[in-house]
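STRUCTURE REQUEST FORM
Protein name: L-arabinose isomerase C-term
Source organism: Lentilactobacillus buchneri subsp. silagei CD034
Requested output: C-alpha cells
Priority: standard
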Amino acid sequence: MVEEINQVSDTDIDNKYQELQQKYTFVQGDNDAAKYEHSVRYQIREYFGIKHLLDKGGYTAFSTNFEDLFGMEQLPGLAVQLLMAEGYGFAGEGDWKTAALDRLLKIMTHNDRTVFMEDYTLELTKGNEAILGSHMLEVDPTIASDKPRVEVHPLGIGGKDDPARLVFDGIDGDAMDVTISDFGTEFRMIGYGVTAHKPTKKTPYLPIAKQYWTPKMGLKHGATEWIQNGGGHHTVLTFTASEQQIKDLATLFQLPFIDIQ
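Status: completed
Returned output:
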C-alpha cells in the first residue's frame, strides 16, 4: 500500500484538491497554510493509493489500524471518508466483519445514508439519554446535514502527523443500527431501530463528524439487550435499509438475527 501511495502523481493530487475545494469548506484553523495544505494533499495521496490497491485486487471493503503505519505520514482519515462516499465498505481497528457488513448494506441501499459507526460516547442526563456516534476520523459524509468542513487536528494515537478529516453533523430520521458478532461457533447479526437527531450542542474539543441517536426502546433497555446479546461497539447505521431487508439478509447468510425491541 505504501508503494501505491508513493506512486500517486502530483497532477492527480492537484485535480482532486481543486475538486474538494469546490465540494467542501476548507478551514485552516490554527494551522499554518503550508501544514494545512500538506495534510490535505497527503490524505488525497492516501486516497488514491488505497483506491488503486483495492481496485487492483478486486476488493470493495477494507480496514485500517492505529499500528503498522510504517512508511505513512498520517493515519488515513479524509482518505477513508472519500472512499466510503464512493461506496467502499470500511471499519476501523481491523474489524473486517463490520467492513464487510458496511459494504453489503451499501450495495443494498445504493450507498444512500448507510455508514460505518461507533457508539462513541453517551448522554446520560435523565430524560434525555442518547448516544453520540462517531469514529475519530472516519465517519461517512453521506449522512452530512451541513456542508462538511475539511479540518486538520492532532490525533493522540498512532504516533503520526496531524490528519485532515471531514467534520460535519449528522441528520434527523429513523434508522437501523446493526452489527455482526463472532461467537466462535457462529456469527450473529444484532440490531435495533433508532431515532436519529442532529447533534444539538457544539463539540469544540471533539473536532470530528458525529451523529446523535436514541434506541427506540430507550437507551437503558437497548444497551442492556445489546450487551447481553453480544453486540460490539462497531456498527453500520442505515437510514435506508428496512428492518425486513436486514432480516432477509441474515436469512440469506443463515445467520441468527437478534432484533432488539
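Reviewer notes: Residues 33-57 form the longest helix (25 residues). Residues 122 and 205 are 16 Å apart (CA to CA).
Form closed.
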